[in-house]
Specification:
This protein has 7 helices and 3 strands. It is mostly helical. The chain has a 3-stranded antiparallel sheet with strand order 1-2-3, with no helix packed on it. The protein is rod-shaped and about 170 Å long. The protein binds zinc ion (2 copies).
Length: 361
């Protein structure tokens, strides 16, 4: 395990790391958001197209024709009503004129005076006009009644057509609902197909690299992926399923933590530490700080964890094993065995010469 010395940095540094971790998490979340949004733009089912399949197109055309005709009729009726109003007004005027002329006649009769020729002519003219007007009024009323009747019949027909089309539209609507559900499910699967592997990768990295100095990066990545997955699942899966998924994930997480802490208390890192020490010795690296153990034939070489086994070792015979202390962290790595007085690994349990065991710190 690398402790990287005891440097934890100043308070400001630690704060900066936390802030940047948060910022990184937000940025990664955005990136995932963009990915998810692009998936969402995949077009779904088209209701208009579906409707076309399910509706009798002849009836649809007839309905449109009916609508057009009804609009025309309404315009015609308005026109007729206007004409009727004009004729009615004119009739009223004529009536008043006739009343005045009659009054004039009555006065003339009282005075035993004969009505003039002109007045007579005026009266009969007015009367004729009035009668003509009345006739036109009747005609217009008749026409309007007929048009209203036609409109009424047409409206009923249209109503029936509409009802019939609604009946045909019902299965189209059901089919659309089905297709839309399927589309949503496909979208959810696509999004999760991208997000879940990322989340799994983050989880693996979090567990494997928990000791790494770059742990905050992985943590930011993991949190962003987790939040996005949770939101996508919440959006696409019904609450009743989602709550089980959520509680299941929480159970696993909390259970895992509990097991981890119980194991830490029961087996205080010994097995894990032993594995780390063993692997470090195998690569000739200090198990504490990773600095190369430059002893014996490896004195003047350089290698890293990756290249440790590719380095050519110069043939140097008869070199004694020597005591060794890491020049970097000061940990004693090879010491004298108290039993056989030869050189043994300080951080491994048994002496490689006599096998005597020592308790490890
Ligand atoms: Zn060291
Ligand atoms: Zn020994």
């Amino acid at each position: 395990m690398k402790t990287a010395g005891n440097s934890k940095g100043t308070g400001l540094h630690r704060l900066a790391i936390r802030l940047f971790t948060l910022l990184l998490g937000v940025l990664i979340y955005w990136l995932l958001q963009f990915l998810v949004q692009d998936i969402r733009t995949i077009p779904g089912p088209d209701f208009a197209a579906l409707e076309q399949q399910y509706l009798d197109q002849q009836q649809v055309t007839r309905l449109a024709d009916h609508d057009q005709e009804l609009a025309d009729l309404t315009r015609v009726i308005e026109n007729q009503q206007q004409k009727q109003r004009v004729v009615g007004d004119s009739s009223r005027n004529l009536q008043e004129t006739m009343a005045q002329l009659l009054e004039l006649q009555r006065l003339s009769l009282q005075k035993n005076l004969a009505l003039s020729e002109t007045d007579q002519a005026n009266f009969s003219n007015t009367l004729n006009l009035f009668l003509e007007n009345q006739r036109r009024y009747q005609e217009l009323s008749q026409l309007e009644a007929e048009t209203l009747d036609r409109r009424q019949r047409l409206a009923e027909e249209r109503e029936n057509l509409q009802r019939e089309l609604d009946r045909q539209r019902e299965p189209a609507r059901e089919e659309f609902q089905r297709q839309r559900d399927r589309h949503r499910f496909r979208l959810a699967c696509l999004q999760l197909a991208i997000l879940l592997p990322l989340l799994a990768l983050a989880a693996i990295l979090l567990v494997r690299r928990r000791a790494s100095i770059y742990f905050p990066l992985i943590l930011a990545f993991g949190c962003a992926a987790l939040v996005k997955v949770a939101l996508v699942m919440h959006e696409y899966f019904p609450t009743r399923y989602f709550k089980y998924v959520l509680i299941g994930a929480l159970l696993i997480a909390v259970g895992g933590l509990l097991v981890h802490f119980i194991r830490t208390i029961a087996f205080p890192k010994s097995a894990w530490l032993r594995k780390q020490y063993r692997e470090a010795y195998e690569r000739f690296l200090c198990p504490v700080c990773d600095y190369p153990i430059r002893s014996g034939p490896r004195r003047f070489l350089f290698w890293t964890r990756r290249t440790a086994h590719k380095v050519q070792i110069p043939a140097e015979r008869g070199v004694q094993e020597e005591l060794y202390t890491c020049p970097d962290c000061g940990t004693v790595l090879f010491e004298e065995c108290p039993a056989c007085h030869k050189v043994r690994h300080s951080l491994l349990a048994h002496c490689l010469h006599c096998g005597s065991q020592k308790p490890l710190a």
